[in-house]
Amino acid sequence: VQLQASGGGLVQPGGSLRLSCAASKIFFSFKQVGWYRQFPGKQRELVALYTDDRRPSYGPSVKGRFTISIDVDKNILDLQMNLLTPEDTAVYYCNARLWTNEDNWGQGTLVTVSS
């Protein structure tokens, strides 16, 4: 499985950014798909995901600001990020988990929130 993330960059506090992830398989064929982020020296943490019952779930620090969605026609996993703060600065990874519980990761895209 290949995942290709894009959309990272520099944005000012309070701004918005949209991340996208393309996959070599149909997203709805996976058990779970989502976004994680990693701060320097820390483990990856959940940002948002679609669980196996196809419901969105969000990490507590992004709930209400970020929205995960799937463009079915293009088979793109999107993450709309609004009201960004410097604390959102991290490398963001898209993830797709197979029904065997094997995790597949994209290459990561850097999001920097700074004035």
Q: What distinguishing features does this structure have?
A:
mainly beta; single chain; four-stranded antiparallel beta sheet; seven-stranded mixed beta sheet; 11 strands; 0% helix; 115 residues
Word description of this protein:
The chain has 115 residues and is mostly beta strands. Helix content is 0%, strand content 50%. The chain has strands at residues 3-6, 9-11, 17-23, 32-38, 45-50, 56-58, 66-71, 76-81, 90-97, 103-105, 109-113. The strands form 2 sheets. Strands 2, 4, 5, 6, 9, 10 and 11 form a 7-stranded mixed β-sheet that branches. The protein starts with a strand and ends with a strand. The mean pLDDT is 95.
Summed up:
This protein is mainly beta. It has strands at residues 3-6, 9-11, 17-23, 32-38, 45-50, 56-58, 66-71, 76-81, 90-97, 103-105, 109-113.
Secondary structural class = mainly beta
Instruction: Give a count of the beta strands, DSSP E runs of length 2 or more.
Output: 11
Radius of gyration: 13 Å
Q: What does the main sheet amount to? A: 7 strands, mixed
